[in-house]
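Sequence and structure are kept together here, with a separate record for every protein. A complete record is shown below as an example:
=====
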Amino acid sequence: SPVPRVRQSTYCHAVQEHCATMKRTVRVVNLDPAAEDFKYTVAHDVRDLISVDDVMEELELGPNGGLVYCMEYLCRSNDWVEEILDPYGDDDYLIFDCPGQIELYSHVPVMQQIVRKLQAEGFQVCGVYLIDALSCTDAAKLMAGTLMALSAMINLEIPHVNVMSKVDLVPATDVEKYLLPDSELVLSELHESTSARFRALNNAFGSLIDDYGLVQFLPMSNGDEDSVELVLAHIDNAIQYGEDMEPREAAEREDVDDPVEMGLASSSVGGTAAGGAGGSFGGASAAM
């Protein structure tokens, strides 16, 4: 899995905690049937419908096969999806914490189907892809992470925000190189570290990234409220969250000093965030 469970859970927890300090309500829905524990408060849990452990035991499937079966079952469970979404309206913001297995975002269409269900219910959805800065410390890993992000962006066909977490754990000079991957620089490092017979393949990967020109990352580190707010601002912009909301009264925001924070706190149109293939989805009227 390109997105370890702890990374997605930490992201959802950080966003939920940050929004709580802003007096902005965010609800998190777990869509990972293999999840074991959470750092955040769960509003709804797909394991109440189906879990990987039960599927593996009853159908004698492996972990990946069990996960794919669970997600396909979820896609067919319209009643459950409608039941959890029914209480929410235009002013609600949801985060859907999704599995991280890349196949769910590349050649298995289940996440596309889930996104379409949310959109059919009136949700505006934004994908949030998470990648660990520590996993990009060499050219091959950075290239792989960039290609996985690109694959998710193309297949989901929704507004997308790519986030690089734990940037505080790598040198600042390296962070700048990671956030906007330079294919020429990455390729030069790849050519030095790989056999010459892979040169054409590496060049093809670099050309693919350049041709699309879509992938760049936002920095985020645990405990850095400014980085969390930056990510949320990009998601809000992607889903046009809060554009139609009335400004909050002065009494409601008397403990908020930063005018940017006040503007974000007053917005509540809904968002969806889903963690998977590296991250989560953010969307208005629910964040995925």
